[in-house]
Amino acid sequence: MSTRVQHALDQLKINGVRITPQRHAILTFLMESMGHPTADEIYRSLEPRFPNMSVATVYNNLKMFIEAGMVRELTYGDNSSRFDADVSNHYHVICEKCGKIKDFMYPSLEEVERKAEELTGFRVRGHRMELYGVCNECQDH
């Protein structure tokens, strides 16, 4: 088990959350998956190991992980939500054909946040940047 998964499980225990085998499996899948899976994809991947687990179980656990600040929910257009266990500051580039999402790092856009505050009087709490294009696989077809 990766130290990242272990750290996340320890955090949950500190917050009084019982670590069920399903929770462990969902968290591990999310942290090891670089593909920003949907709840359905998580469910389908884990269902052979947990035949009694429902999609609702996956959703409820994802919601709990989001509330604990361990997972981000990504909503783009009317596609179903995708989930990202990387809560560091990073950005996404999204394929307009297949919906694949890739992470990329860029120096933080805090200057943009400061300028927005200055120009609008808002107190900015965060931002999200998405770029859209066509991935390598879809370009080849």
Automatic annotation (TrEMBL):
It comes from the Bacteria. Zn(2+) binds at C95, C98, C135, C138. Its cofactor is Mn(2+); Fe(2+); Zn(2+). Binds 1 Mn(2+) or Fe(2+) ion per subunit. Binds 1 zinc ion per subunit. Coiled coil: none annotated. It is found in: Cytoplasm. Fe cation binds at E110, H127. GO terms for molecular function: DNA-binding transcription factor activity; transcription cis-regulatory region binding; zinc ion binding. This is Peroxide-responsive transcriptional repressor PerR. The gene is perR.
